[in-house]
Write a structure and sequence with these properties.
By secondary structure, the chain is an alpha/beta fold. It has seven helices and ten strands. The chain has a single domain, classed as Rossmann fold (3-Layer(aba) Sandwich), CATH 3.40.50. It has a six-stranded mixed sheet with strand order 6-7-8-3-9-10, with helices on both faces. The chain has a four-stranded antiparallel sheet with strand order 2-1-4-5, with helices on one face.
Amino acid sequence: MEPIVEVTDVNVMRSNSLVIQQATFTINKGDYVGIVGPNGGGKTTLILAMLGFLPIQKGAIQLFGEHISSFSQWERVAYVSQGAINFDTTFPLTVRELVGLGRIHRGNIGRKLTTNDWEAVDESLEIMAVNDLAYKRIGNLSGGQKQRVFVAKALVRHPDVLLLDEPVAGIDATTLEKFYKTLSDLNEKKKLTIMIVSHDLSTVFCRMSKLICVNRQVYISDITKDMDPNTILKKVYGEHFHFVFHEHACEGVFNHD
């Protein structure tokens, strides 16, 4: 096991309220993690704290074995926020150019992208199945296409861990399944560690290997075929909730291949 993210006894405050309380968990290399919980429960806050965007009141967070306060290898971490696709649609940028921005970092600001950079761009476009959109204006795409393009931008530097905060809002069911299948392939074939905030519980239990439930307190569990999902879900959603899982494209809700 190679720890990627280690969270130990972490409290996070926002607007003078305790949003995350005593969170402790470890995410290892190759984990495919679904982060679930009720709206306002702290899922986004937890991600922002792991990325260093929010200060922690108590505890410690380590990335790749290094305390987050001194961590500097941010090219190893990719993040797509909830609002990534909310931008001025008249902005004159093609899909390929937008994904190319993902290759820019402090070490190469001001220089033109190299052949290797553009090869990485084209590879990311192909992985996310948006290579046919390469020369379209980003503002002319559908919501689902924009989401896939921003994931391609996140992947273009070949990160070790990808964090996605509700990346599939407004995507139709067919496109949604293709999107999650693509992430599953990246996780299995490239051993990319993925953490994704999702409200699609069936997909989480079908495709992912680990579950984090967040409602101020944080619970973590491996996802196995013989687990009872209600046991952990009711800890954050409440005992009065009843969970119904729809049929999924993979072999049964609790199999993840």
